[in-house]
Amino acid sequence: MSRPARFSLKRQLLIWLLLPQLVLWLMGGVLAFRVALAYAEKTIDQSLTQSVRSLARQVKPMGSGLLVDFPRAARDIIEQDPDDRVAYMVSSPPGSFLLGNTKIPGRTPDLYSADNEPVLYEVVMDGRPMRVASIDLSFGDGFTDQRMRVQVAKSLVAQQRIARELVRDVLFPLLILGAVLSVLVYEGIRRGLAPLERLEAQLANRNMASLSPIEMTQAPEEVHSLANTLNQLLTTLRRSLSQEKRFLNDAAHQLRTPLAGLISQTELAMQEKDPEALQQRLTKVHTGAQRSAHLVHQLLSLARTEAEVSLVPVDAASLAREVAREWTRRALAAGVDLGYEGEDSVMVPADKLLLREVLSNLIDNALRYAGKGAVVTLRTTVHDGFCWLDVEDTGPGVSGEQLERVFERFWRASELPGGCGLGLSIVAEIARRHNGTATAQTTLPHGLTIRLQLPLQPLI
């Protein structure tokens, strides 16, 4: 069986908050470098254009020849940057070296420009990329037209240096801001997760003996919601443990007496020599065993009612008729007239097994205590949006003072053997689990009526 994947919420938040920031910073760096290169190239192109026009003005046509007026001062202006290589060349016709400090390759045929308009392109000279500005001029005396090309080349070292400086000046402050933002994000995540750490600490201090609610005085709304949900779970668990403890205590208390009686009667039976006396002892053992079995059955029913129930539509009238038929043979044996009255069909939201347990307990109580010759009626009626399930008997009933105690656990109004005082408490508990109530009232002129009131199934 594979173990569930575990991950740190803090690490996940840091990754999803800081990683996009780093990616955006790198993308910003690349974009800033490209923008810086474009601006640097534009600056170099403007400088080359000015330089090539200035150099072209120093070469003046005279008749069919050229007068080159290019003093040392003009060359120094063009070559003013010692760290940046600058080359220039004048050729006439174009490509035939006339003047300059190096030979510059010509432009490709696909580059065309009108006379007196510079053309910009890139070449590689001595293994170094260079940017070239080239301008073509026409001169002559009208009979023999000639052409002259002026070229000025500048390495791209300056362009890259300018781009690096721009990127550095832009990204370094962004890097500082990113670092500060990362610290703030980390601190914010740490503070934001602090309530969860406090919640974890409080849960770590809980055990089966201490299931008190979690207290969160200062926490975000989401943590409060989580704490409230956990408190509901703790409350349910605390109630379940309390019910389990009470059930075990009740079971131990109630089983102690019949089991002790069984042991005592068995010991006496083992010592009896008279067959008739032995038979009497065995009869008492059998009665005690029946009572113990009935008590265990009732205790198990009580435990089942304290579990969670799932309510589904159930026809209470049909179920009541079915249960009444099941108990008919027992009623005839007890000399009791058992019958059903009421509706043909009544739908209620219920757990069918538990509802059957309720009706069986009520009929069992009535047959047990109503006495021979009594009449027991199982009745189903509808009143004001509720279903009434009544079990009415014409037995001796109970006094008015005892009516309030009939649903208490282990309380018995009669000393007749066989009961254990759990039947009606089970009925009350099941009624509560079905969002209903169980009540007891005296039947005139004598007898007892136990009423189970359940809400009707809503119409869809």
Automatic annotation (TrEMBL):
Its EC number is 2.7.13.3. This is histidine kinase. Residues 190-242 form the HAMP domain. Residues 250-458 form the Histidine kinase domain. The chain crosses the membrane at residues 170-189. The keyword Isomerase does not apply. It catalyses: ATP + protein L-histidine = ADP + protein N-phospho-L-histidine. It comes from Rhodoferax mekongensis. Keywords: Kinase, Membrane, Phosphoprotein, Transferase, Transmembrane, Transmembrane helix, Two-component regulatory system. SUPFAM superfamilies: ATPase domain of HSP90 chaperone/DNA topoisomerase II/histidine kinase, Homodimeric domain of signal transducing histidine kinase. PANTHER family: SENSOR HISTIDINE KINASE YKOH, SENSOR PROTEIN QSEC. It is found in: Membrane. The keyword Disulfide bond does not apply. InterPro entries: 2CSK_N, HAMP_dom, HATPase_C_sf, HATPase_dom, His_kinase_dom, HisK_dim/P_dom, HisK_dim/P_sf, Sig_transdc_His_kin-like_C. Pfam families: 2CSK_N, HATPase_c, HisKA.
